[in-house]
Amino acid sequence: MNIILVSDSLAKSRSVTLSQTQVFFIAFGILAAGFMLAMATYVMTMKFSVDLRNPYLRTLLAALHEEQNRKNEAELKDNIGALAVKVGELQARILRLDAFGDRLARAANIKREEFRFDEKPGQGGPLVNGVGRDITVAEFQQMLTEISRVLDDRADKLGVLDSYLMDDRLVRKTIPTTLPIESGYYSSNYGSRIDPINGRSTFHTGVDLIAPQGTPVLAAAGGIVSAVEYQAEYGNLVDVDHENGLTSRYAHLSKSMVKIGDVVMKGQNIALVGQTGRVTGPHLHFEVREKGVPLNPNRFLSLGNKDVVIGNAYRK
């Protein structure tokens, strides 16, 4: 390599010839000088960095620390806010499920003291492995997600149970399980008997309930009035269609309180006891029919949890 030196102090230019080895050593020297300068700068920086008494360094570190704290606090507030919203949603859903479960318990006739939704469940047990460890935010979020999934599952199952209970309650309301008179006695049961008028063996299609003239006659179940008429054998009668193939009949009435097409509820006053038709005295003749075929009314009355049949007498 040829290097030509030109200067005002020189009368003429000079030429310096460098070999490859000399060029390599010069380049290496420049690199080594740069490296040494960098090491010196690093050593001086580290020396000042460990000297916490340096006011400038302490101010710089405090500013960096404060900025990091602000970032951490902002992130923590965001996480707490998101978790608080999630917890609030879960609390609201639990309250709805508690109310739902309480209503189902009442519908299933479960005693309140046996199945309470407004009490915290009892829990406890020994502490294993010392005091345990703190739960991380990620673990807490996973727990909330799992709780939310379980609540969805329980809500679906309670909804199915409510549907079944609702169907059962509707069916019970349309099955004649309530005695049509509040007080009185059986004077004649369902089945074979000696006819009270001609003294011959006959089949009785219902039950006779002795009660004073004018005693209110109650609907044994909800339904629609399908007949209000007079027949020679039954006298004044009222039929109630329960829309499940069953019909209840109330006969020998002195007066009907309903008309054809009326919707009646279980226990509603629909007529008054009388002695019309083929009778020996005031009483109510009560029948239950399925598609026109007379059935034993006691099979249905025995389902009523408030009505008790005792021999030839009955009471509430």
TrEMBL record:
Q: Which UniProt keywords apply?
A: Membrane, Transmembrane, Transmembrane helix
Q: Which residues cross the membrane?
A: 23-44
Which SUPFAM superfamilies has this protein been placed in?
Duplicated hybrid motif (SSF51261)
Q: What positions does the domain M23ase beta-sheet core occupy?
A: 203-297
The protein in question is named M23ase beta-sheet core domain-containing protein
Top-rank lineage group of the source organism: Bacteria
Q: Which InterPro entries match?
A: Cell_wall_metabolism_enzyme, Dup_hybrid_motif, M23ase_b-sheet_dom
Q: Name one GO molecular function term.
A: metalloendopeptidase activity
